[in-house]
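Supplementary Methods S3. Input chains for the assembly prediction are listed below.
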Amino acid sequence: MNVNLDQMNLTRRPFIKTVVGASLATMVARAQEPSNPEKKLGWALVGLGSLSSKQIAPALLNSKHCKLVAVVTGTPEKGVKWREQYGLAEDKVYSYESFDKIIDDPDIDVVYIVLPNSMHHEFTIRAAKAGKHVFCEKPMANSAKECREMIAACAAVKRQLGIGYRCQFELHHQEAMRLAREQVFGPLQHLDAGFGFAIGDPTQWRLRKALAGGGALMDVGVYALQACCYLAGEEPVEVSALETKTDPVKFAEVDETIHWMMKFPSGLTANCLTTYRFSGCDHFTAYGSKGRFGMKPCYGYSKLAGWTSDPNIPLSFPQTDHFLAEMDAFSLAIIEGRRFEPSGAEGLRDLLVIEAIYRSIASGKKERVEKEA
Amino acid sequence: MNVNLDQMNLTRRPFIKTVVGASLATMVARAQEPSNPEKKLGWALVGLGSLSSKQIAPALLNSKHCKLVAVVTGTPEKGVKWREQYGLAEDKVYSYESFDKIIDDPDIDVVYIVLPNSMHHEFTIRAAKAGKHVFCEKPMANSAKECREMIAACAAVKRQLGIGYRCQFELHHQEAMRLAREQVFGPLQHLDAGFGFAIGDPTQWRLRKALAGGGALMDVGVYALQACCYLAGEEPVEVSALETKTDPVKFAEVDETIHWMMKFPSGLTANCLTTYRFSGCDHFTAYGSKGRFGMKPCYGYSKLAGWTSDPNIPLSFPQTDHFLAEMDAFSLAIIEGRRFEPSGAEGLRDLLVIEAIYRSIASGKKERVEKEA
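Predicted structure tokens for the full assembly:
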């Protein structure tokens, strides 16, 4: 699938310079070195859970600009299986301990971090120290502080840090961003967004605070937050949040249901929900001054559907592979020496909102979102 | 149109005894006096604005149990016009000053208060003192204190006080209440509800605090609040609210946009919006553990539409006259000696939530909803 990069630039959140170093010129210079624009970049997957095996690896098989060249796993048997399945050489299966040796592996251009949230920080920094570009699953990390350190680590070695906000590469979402940005239904006035599901297995890492950092908000709430921000094209300045816990045993460590409100500088307001309690909340609705549009279902891997209040302006596209699109876009940005968005800067901005949401729950008050300098 | 009272009883908010006096037995005894169950009750309309002229009076012409017998207006020319249009005798046009003389008018059984919000309190109490049943437009009053005084005034003379929550008499809403109450889509988990419109004429009474008591929240937000409560079948215990004002001149006295969240005792959560800034927000969505249902448009006089997540369980009915239904239901309750709901007790409960919302906006904190003893 081709990603239209001109369109992407229109629909991204406002371009913000990365915090440290890595000018665009440096990146262009570096990118021109290989002098082979047709080259596929080599990707290493860190963490071989279901996301890697069911979504990411299959997508890589169809990629124009990426190829799977290595895996990193804590389970040797998984390494054997992956080696056979994807025809990897024996020395292309790393453990978490041997991971840093990727510095000597020129076949690896990009490291994709597909680990539990609390490990994103460590492995992003280790990958950067090995001189690799990093593509990191959402949420970027467990705190804004971790995000800043990850951004700095990648900038210090002049490598790109992309965040796996796959919906930004999905056609309905991209068109929705255009509708918002071009004010096709007038300036946006209000957003409703929610994403949740009834979580199963009580032993999974998503329910352990040490691994997940938080609950529904960190895992799926971030999709609703993202949608509000990329539709708004601006960052929320104030949030107010409430938490509800109906099963204090299962959700002893992490949040079960959080609903929150946001105010944006333009006067735009947003109501959001995230939950591990029930399925079926999976949408956004954008209210413009002249009409409305939205998606439902909205954030899954397939079967997405859009609607608008004007029968002459459909919001309907074929289903696409979001993972393929985002990984190709990341590789192509590196090959062509362009800065990739959504970068770590955007992941950081989302963590600043998430931190304000958790502060609001703790204080019982509305909270300002900390602004990044 | 027939109102199915058996069904109504299923779908009402939990039956709560009125605060003062007026036992059901007393009401039954009184109601049996006239010994003419076919009698139409005589209604007097207080306030002849567009709601009275365009909705209520036409509905009364089609009523089985009500007839228009008198009007109360501050504009003598309107009185002449209404007298001619509805064939009223000269002595059936009262002014606000002569209003209390209705005590001597046996043709008037019910007084329907269709005045600006801040006048509901005074005219309800004056109507009660004249021994009349009172039907009062929403919001019931500007404060919980006023509501209590109105309830006490009606109870003291053993007259009923009904609130004009017309949606409770509309077929889609009634079926939605049944879906919620019978847990057809499982127990409710979350509610989204919103109602707003782009308000026009900047000189209208709705924008004057002295007349309206508040802005969008008092006027249309109360529909979203009502929907949440009658779907929930329980009262919210905690609210958190934010206010946004983009036009501080037009909305110098009243609220423009308010979004708020509610928590209910069962763990049910709700996100709500109300606004005078833009049109098109007019819906509720109910998330159950096994599916979803909702309405959009939801709160207007016509063109209402429902939906559910199960194609085998439609939420679709003919459009009906909400005013006719509620007025007939009120008259019939009086004729048959049953207590009418939604009564002043429900109007009071809504004002307690509205007061908590305004308190939350002022304090910047979540607020408990005051419980009525």
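Residues 1-35 of chain A have pLDDT under 50 and may be disordered. The longest strand of chain A covers residues 188-196.
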